[in-house]
Amino acid sequence: MFVVLEEYMLSAYRLFTLTHRQASLDQLEPYSIPAEVQNSTLSRLRKELGWDEVFYLSTCNRILFFFYQEDRDPTTLFELQRSLGIPHDADQAKPLFLSGSAAILHLYDVAASVDSMVVGEREILRQLRHAYLSCHDCGLCGDHLRILMQSAVAAAKTVYHKTRIGQKPVSVVSLAAQRIRQQRLDPAKARVLMVGAGQTNWLVSRFLVKQGFANVTVANRTIKKAEKLAAVFGGDGISLEDLETYDVGFDLLVVCTSATTPILTTDLFRKLLNGEKATDKVVVDLSVPHNVEAKVVQKFRPTYIQIDDLRQLAQENLAFRSGEVAQARKLIGEQLSVFRERVQQRRIEVAMKHVPDEIRSVRKKAMRVVFHRELASLDGDTVELIERMMHYMEKKCIGIPMKAAREAAKPEEEFDLTDIEAKFGFEQLLKETSE
Predict the structure, then answer these.
(1) Are 265 and 300 a contacting pair, CB within 8 Å?
(2) Quick one: which of 62, 85, 99, 308 has the most CB atoms within 10 Å?
(3) Beta-ladder partners of 66
(4) Is cis: bond before 302, omega within 30 of 0?
């Protein structure tokens, strides 16, 4: 009976979601709301579909409408599609509908990156927070979604701290950075040559900046792109043709371009060495296909870090993270139990909010109606004393139940999501749980 009652209290929490698990990425597009009309569109949906509160999350592989809806049958997929102007096509991918504890558990899974394409990625928690705050600031979220989001962040925090779901890098760039770090190069002295100025090398540059590498030259087919990336370090950008006459030398060479044939041939590598010992050099090839000619590794024997090995390690690390999912879901289940109590306590808190006004009304009626005649026969000092006594009793009668309600409704850890950096330390959470 209690389980049924608890589930009833949660039944107004509902969601529609479409992810990489149900659809290809292009099938998410019809449910995506452009940023410039997001607030107006969600406000319209809220009114048309009878949602009390709503927030909306859109990422590269996920669409999520999470809403609170009391005193109404759940919104149907047909109603959602109609409001979004999406044809009801039987062949198209359909969002998943969840309600009650199933919807809440799904949100916990999202926040804790259990449901992510890459298990253990922390970026989703940041995206979820920004999605909520955007809707909150527009008045789309109220008390129900506020306490839910507090609970979701708490669940994510618990999972990140008490499991190893975020350990062991699973991106090739992170693994490459880890391998570079193991070479113990001196960032203050090491000469870095980056070949290519695409997204991968931009990601590598973040690691290099963080580690303090400053002597960096970037070579790229388009010299403007090379100069833009090199500017991050205050370095120089050159063209690929300039590598033939590059005589500065290098300690770390990172190469990643879209070329389909090797760029770093034995002849070019010999020139880049500029007479220095090849076995002291670190070469990182993140290209597909390889940009470093196989003969370079065979002949010169540099420390060679290549994408095939990194990909294999990434798969092993992802398997390790996936092995933590069971423990993560156990912790998430515990957080759901806490949330159920929080919802029930919040109902008590709301029910008690009228108590102060009712007690004041009783005092006023007692003084002005019930005991009016008796008070009229008393002298002024006595009436004033009774007034003070009644006022004292009023405050105490208000204070006792309200304090009890606040204590009953107070979660173990509460924070204001609109000021989360200051009161909860969200950025510190990400820092503490980062690799």
Answers:
(1) no
(2) 62
(3) 15, 55
(4) no
- Residue range 48-61, pLDDT digits in tens: 999 999 999 998 78
CA distance 359 to 44: 41
| CATH architecture of the domain covering 172-314 | 3-Layer(aba) Sandwich (3.40)
At residue 83, the 3 state secondary structure works out as: helix
User: What whole-number percentage of the chain has pLDDT above 70?
Assistant: 88
Strand-pair category, 282-285 with 252-255: parallel
Ramachandran angles phi, psi of 23, nearest 5°: -155, 160
* Helix, strand, coil abundance in the chain, percent, nearest 5: 60, 10, 30
User: What residue ranges of the chain are covered by domains with CATH 3.30.460.30?
Assistant: 2-166+324-346
* pTM reported for the whole predicted model: 0.64
Helices 380-409 + 325-351 axis angle, to 10: 160
**Sheet order of strands, 62-68 included:** 53-59, 62-68, 13-19, 96-99
Q: Quick one: DSSP state of residue 190?
A: -
Residue with tokens 């109606």: 369
**How is residue 113 written in tokens?**
């990156």
- Mean pLDDT over residues 254-266, rounded? 92
289 preceded by a cis bond (ω within 30 of 0): yes
Q: What angle do CA 349, 350, 356 make, to 5 degrees?
A: 85
Distance between CA 339 and CA 217 in Å, rounded?
53
- Is 7 exposed, middle or buried, given 0-12, 13-18 or 19+ CB atoms closer than 10 A? middle
Instruction: Provide the pLDDT confidence category of residue 317 given band limits of 50, 70 and 90.
Output: confident
Burial of 305 (0-12, 13-18, 19+ CB in 10 A): buried
**How would CATH label the architecture of 2-166+324-346?**
2-Layer Sandwich (3.30)
- Is residue 113 within 8 A of residue 121, CB to CB? The reply is yes
Nearest to 435 by CA among 122, 159, 224: 122
Tokens of 414: 């509460």
Domain with CATH 3.40.50.720 in the chain: 172-314
